[in-house]
Amino acid sequence: MNLYIQIIWLFVLAIPIACVAWTVTHEEIFREPRNFCINKSQNSKTLFTRKIFYLFTCEYCFSHYVSLFFIIFSDYKLLLDDWRGYIIALFSLVWIANVYMSIFAFIRQDIKKEKYEIEEIQSHTNKAVK
Question: Fewest CB atoms less than 10 Å from the CB: which of 23, 40, 65, 126?
Answer without folding.
Answer: 126
